[in-house]
Write a structure and sequence with these properties.
Elements lengths: L3 E9 L5 E10 L4 E5 L6 H9 L6 E6 L2 E2 L10 E4 L11 H11 L4 H15 L14 H13 L5 E5 L7 H18 L2 E6 L2 H7 L2 E6 L2 E6 L1 H6 L4 H6 L6 E6 L4 E4 L2 E4 L1 H4 L3 H4 L3 E6 L5 E2 L5 E13 L4 E7 L2 E7 L10 E7 L4 E4 L7
Parallel strand pairs: 3-8, 3-9, 6-7, 7-8
Antiparallel strand pairs: 1-2, 1-4, 4-5, 9-10, 11-14, 12-13, 14-20, 15-19, 16-17, 16-19, 17-18
Helix pairs in contact: 2-3, 2-4, 3-4, 4-5
Bound molecules: adenosine-5'-diphosphate (ADP).
Adenosine-5'-diphosphate binds next to helix 1.
Length: 358
């Protein structure tokens, strides 16, 4: 039996806005689940329904197989870390972390022991006497996490916990959160709009768009087996390139190039003849020059961005545009012609009407 079960969960706000549609998911104990998607797609709403902060309009939420829709937040044994740290400014780090236990009237010695253990996990041992204002953003966020993990809870919810940190702190804190999860083993549900955070932290990712779950899978599955154009375009940086066209004689036009899709379509080739199709390939999957068993494309270089470990090359071919990721030593000239190959096995085909993978 799954630890947490969300069955056909819906959220319709009092103003009639249907924010979450038939959300289904089973979460196992100790899993690290990430909800990812653009702003406004219903991630926080779903998280808040799990926390018991928002009423579930329709559907059932189960904890250990037991209906939890009507349980209050405390009864659910769930702790939540928010975007803003919400620390008490006049209390020391120690008191902030201890706060929940102090309220519960836990024995002082036990509190001291637990705070010290939590602080050690979070690297806050040397800061216990400080006030929050004397801490960096990353340290404050760690105190907020400490306050949540010190309570023995079954589930740990995090809503964009890194969004107030700068880029460097985010990378550090991201690996710390992964470490904390390894050490505590707490079942975690984490909300972010950042696909890199999702890919690096998650055991499984739930990709959402406009209130609907698009796909649930491991980072590997989402990257290599995206269910539709949205997921394929959302996971990966720079995103997958999409060439939209109509299949004509088993081919799709990419600028002046004709991409032969008949072989890949196999017995569906006849069905798609004359139909719209989306030809997808990742920037990192191309090879410069002519390769065997590949679609060879001639295009023009519009712009290059040397990023150190790779160069992003923005190309145009007629009306079509794409980004290629190449070795910086192979950075091409701007405004010059370029020839590259898209290996057949790296091509994704999607139905142009449904946008689902073929
Ligand atoms: P996300 O976390 O993915 O950014 P949210 O779950 O916060 O998205 O919001 C999903 C949608 O529900 C948004 O369009 C948002 O405007 C709407 N929404 C959120 N809270 C309310 C509310 N209290 N009343 C009405 N609509 C809301």
């Amino acid at each position: 039996m799954a630890y947490l079960t969300l069955k056909d969960i819906n959220k319709i706000y009092p103003n009639g806005y249907h924010a979450v549609h038939n959300f289904n998911l089973e979460i196992e104990k100790n899993e690290f689940i990430v909800f990812v998607g653009p702003s406004g797609c219903g991630k926080s709403t779903t998280l808040r329904m799990i926390a018991g902060l928002e009423e579930i309009s329709n559907g059932e939420f189960l904890i250990n197989g037991k209906r939890a829709n009507e349980m209050g937040p405390r009864e659910r044994e769930i702790a939540m870390v928010f975007q803003s740290y919400a620390l008490y400014p006049q209390m020391t780090v120690f008191d902030n972390i201890a706060f929940g236990l102090t309220l519960q009237g836990v024995d002082e010695e036990v509190i001291e022991q637990k705070v010290k253990k939590t602080a050690a996990i979070l690297g806050l041992t040397d800061y216990l006497d400080r006030l929050p204002r004397a801490l960096s953003g990353g340290q404050r966020q760690r105190v907020a996490i400490g306050r949540a993990i010190i309570r023995k809870v079954g589930v740990f919810l995090m809503d964009e916990p890194l969004s107030n940190l700068d880029a460097k702190q985010r990378v550090t804190m991201r690996s710390e959160i992964a470490q904390i999860h390894r050490e505590t083993g707490a079942t975690t549900i984490y909300v972010t709009h950042d696909q890199t955070e999702a890919m690096t932290l998650a055991d499984r990712i739930v990709v959402m768009k406009e209130g609907y779950v698009q796909q649930v899978g491991t980072p590997y599955e989402l990257y290599y087996q995206p269910a539709n154009v949205f997921v394929a375009g959302f996971i990966g940086e720079p995103p997958m390139n999409f060439i939209r066209g109509t299949v004509t004689g088993g081919k799709v036009k990419f600028g002046d190039n004709m991409l032969d899709v008949a072989k890949k379509l196999g017995d569906k080739a006849a069905k798609y003849e004359g139909k719209p199709i989306v030809f997808g390939f990742r920037p990192e999957s191309i090879v410069l020059g002519k390769q065997p068993d590949a679609h060879v494309v001639k295009a023009s270089v519009e712009l290059t961005e040397m990023l150190g470990d790779n160069t992003n090359v923005y190309i145009t071919a007629g009306e079509d545009k794409a980004i290629l990721k190449v070795d910086p030593h192979d950075t091409p000239e701007t405004d010059a012609p370029i020839e590259f190959s898209i290996p057949n096995k790296e091509v994704y085909l999607f139905d142009g009407e449904t946008e689902m993978v073929i």
